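Quick one, tokens below:
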């Protein structure tokens, strides 16, 4: 099951996020249209300096608890991807209403990872 999570969630989701960011880099304009015919160029989203990379997943009943509580993945190029089980993400959105609150929470999680990474790497 652990290999399944790694291949399915980590590799696919991380690659999808990286491909999306690359797509934004190579296109001058990305126009989307809603059901009412309103068009918007979402290319401006690429101007955000601190893009949060989150992976939201759902798991089967037999999903191991140890993997259920894995909260981060750091790629080989030091990019941090934050994992959310769908239930956890639901609660984040329920209690943190504004985008600013959610952004601050994601910053907290990244800082938490960095703090503990430094703490454990210095003890070895």
């Amino acid at each position: 099951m652990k290999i399944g999570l790694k291949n399915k969630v980590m590799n696919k989701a991380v690659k999808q996020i990286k491909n999306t960011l690359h797509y934004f880099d190579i296109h001058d304009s990305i126009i989307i249209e809603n059901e009412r015919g309103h068009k918007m160029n979402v290319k401006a989203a690429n101007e955000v300096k601190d893009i949060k990379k989150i992976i939201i997943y759902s798991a089967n009943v037999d999903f191991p608890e140890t993997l259920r509580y894995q909260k981060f993945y750091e790629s080989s190029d030091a990019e941090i991807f934050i994992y959310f089980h769908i239930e956890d993400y639901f609660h984040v959105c329920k209690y943190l209403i504004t985008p600013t609150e959610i952004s601050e929470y994601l910053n907290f999680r990244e800082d938490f990872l960095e703090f503990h990474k430094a703490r454990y790497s210095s003890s070895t």
